[in-house]
Amino acid sequence: MSDGWDELRAGAARNRRWAGEARARADEARTRSQAEGARWAEAEINAAGATARLALLREELERARQRIANLELALQTNRRIAMAVGIIMARRCVPEDEAFDVLRMTSQQTHRKLRELADEVVYTGAVPDGTAAPGAGTPQP
Question: Is 1.10.10.10 the CATH number for 5-124?
Fold first, then answer.
């Protein structure tokens, strides 16, 4: 006949077994959690790196767009200057370098940008005389 101690011992043994199993499951879950945490941390690091790369690419794209705009303006300006030089060559019967010198000297003497002066020559057909006095801003026909 049992005085209840046997049941108590059996219950305690069962509880120890369950506690051991629970500890094992908790350890396993902790290990899995750490592995998942490491994967999450790695994913966050990758995401941060991708965000930084994206920001750099956006900056690079903006610089490229600005460079394109500058090059387009330079190309357009170069074409206008070449047309103005051609007009001066035809009107004055002078070689290319002399026609450019007329345009350049007039630009400097009148304190006007070369491209602005070239635009005026192209649009009006007026050829500067190349000996304009400082402050004179009207090219001669």
Answer: yes
